[in-house]
Design goal:
- By secondary structure, the chain is an alpha+beta fold.
- It is elongated.
- It has 3 helices and 4 strands, in the order αααββββ.
- A hairpin with a 5-residue loop joins β1 and β2.
- Strands 2-1-3-4 form a 4-stranded antiparallel β-sheet, with helices on one face.
Amino acid sequence: MLILLIFMEEASGTLDHNRKVSRIANSVADLVAQGQTVTPADLKAMMHIGGKILDPYPDTNLETIVASVTFDKKGNPAVDWSYSSKGGSSWPKGSKPPIELPDAVAKPLTSIVVTQANLKYAPPFAGIFTDYFARDSLIDLSDTFYLRPRLTDTVKCPDC
């Protein structure tokens, strides 16, 4: 019964954190897509939403990446700018994004805002039974959201 209770606690905690990671990616993408231009200071402030959504849990293992991606005439993606909650740019400007973009969003001569939230979640009982049950003590949770800019063709970030 004790093992079943521990499993239930770890499973429900993981599902709860996974839901919160999705909300973080969605919220940041939504905020950026509402603007015409953003600054690194704006983006830094937006990244604090991750800690608020994860509250009361710590956000030390959370990284949120937001980027503007434009598609050329053939539908090939290129990063216009990117920003990471861990500081600075994370995806090289002009390069192909390091994630797989769905064909549904790759419309020629359009732009999207992409947000990826990544969290290394440590369940409360991680490490207690790893001597008996082989598994990692951290669980990688991630979600990605794609939104079209609302007020402009491309959200600009001149200083990113």
